[in-house]
What we know:
alpha+beta; 7-stranded mixed β-sheet; about 55% helix; P_typ_ATPase_HD_dom; ion transport
Amino acid sequence: MNTSNRENSNLIENIKEHKELIAALLSGLITLLAWRMETNGLLTAAVIAYLSAFVIGGYAKAKEGLLDTVENKTLNVELLMVLAAIGSSLIGYWTEGAILIFIFALSGALESYAMNKSHREISALMNLQPEEAWLVRGAFEPMKVPVSTLKVGDHLLIKPGERIPADGQIIKGTSSIDESAISGESMPVTKQVGENVYAGTVNLNGTLTINMTRPNSETLFQKIITLVQSAQSEKSPSQQFIERFEGTYVKFVLLAVGLMLFLPHYLLGWDWTTTFYRAMVLLVVASPCALVASIMPATLAAISNGARNGILFKGGVHLELLSSLNLLAVDKTGTLTVGTPTVTDIIVREDLNEKDTMATLASIESQANHPLAQAIVKYAKKENIDTIQGIEIEDVPGWGLKANYNHHSYLVGKSDFVGSEEATNFANNAAEKLAEEGKTVIFMKDEQGIAALVAMKDTVRDEAKEAVKLLKELGIEVAMLTGDNEKTARTIAKEAGVNEFIAECLPETKVNHIKNYLQTHRNVGMVGDGINDAPALATATVGIAMGGGTDVALETADVVLMKNDLSKIAYAIRLSRKMQKIVKQNILFSISVICLLIISNFIQVVDLPFGVIGHEGSTILVILNGLRMLKS
């Protein structure tokens, strides 16, 4: 019984979804039967059938046109079509009027299908959210409960192959996670205890237990869906212009049709029937249906394409502006670079063992929270160097650390802390050479002098180098903004391949630099982490946040890259340029078809059925051309 009810429900849903198409096809079938009746002399029956075709095929569009006119107090193309069909029937062209209604209804049904195509991308995303989850409570067996009943703090079990039902932190287990639904990145990410996982992503191989950290309505996945839905409802400047133009154009067409109802009779000697008929043809062929449909389907398809590839546009306006960028300003830390320092060089005094010395240094640094200290500890773990317990340390803020171990004292920090002259002379002035390479150097000193030198550097991302290259190929200059000193900035800029750099740049001064770039380059993009770069992101023509799946990035920028991958910017710009190209093609094509049909009508070489086919056919073609944006 339940299966039968479900099947009936699905059937009803399918009928509702395709009701416009069903009405159009039914209208066409009735028109064909009416024409057969007319040819067999059954005129009364034929007229009744034609009227039925008018009502069935034209009801939806007539209602839409009337409601839109009343609501916005602006004339629209739907009214033009209805008037043309009524006018045709008044002069006895029932067949032509019915064909007009049929093709217009069919065109409208296909347009609705095309528009819904991009919305279905978001619906498909929403379907990725699980409806049930395994809830763990104490020693009891996990029980399956609706996701809607879960609360923050609940412990959830996620088995291999299951979608993660909520945002949370792993408290047990290790697994590979497919995060493509959020980031667009096909490569799985290995997650372990302490790391965050997101609703809608897939647990591939291990069994995980997570602590739910956010309510279901506030998950990152839900925010992405909301953001894309909001972007799809926001119209680009081009679309807004077309919609304003539509109302004025329709008034102009009605005025032209009004003049044509009698002027050709007196000026060209046409009979009244021909004059009225040609006025009705003008009403059809001059309608801007194709022009109106030139932009929105392409924009919606491009936004859906971006979302599928981990690029979130906050509206059509930002997508449109991307195509005109001349310069991209890029924050260094966490954007061009990894964002955390890595040990690159180690020099130990000749009388000391390198492994033992590094064990002492790593043991001292393990008790500090500074990023440089963490880099040294990470290096020690990578090299399987065991740390020592029982070292006493004293933190000297802004300078370094003092340590005591086994009756020996140590100083760890910058050159001024351990002794500037000794540090400079150590290992034949090695520190100076390393600093020129853009590296940060720290020293460890014992009772005999400088014991070791460690150089560290925030390394340039491999994908960043490729991204800068791709942007240059697109004709976009890349400028790096960084708070680092001149030497470090120059080294990173050279490695990344950017056109220019500005060093010692404070977050508040980045805004001034962006303003200067706007004067010299007109359209400027800014890429940052979405937190301290927020003012600069807001000042730029388009602000782009390196999201990494963070909520802050979703709030601050115009475009969000859900993975810290600069190459996605080049993809987004190509997407924008392709969309602009398709929009221009659509506008040029639709205007050309309108002009050709109007001229053909005046020289009486196109009749109403062919005018309808040419006009509505062009509308369908521009919609299908716009849908090419769904493909990469």
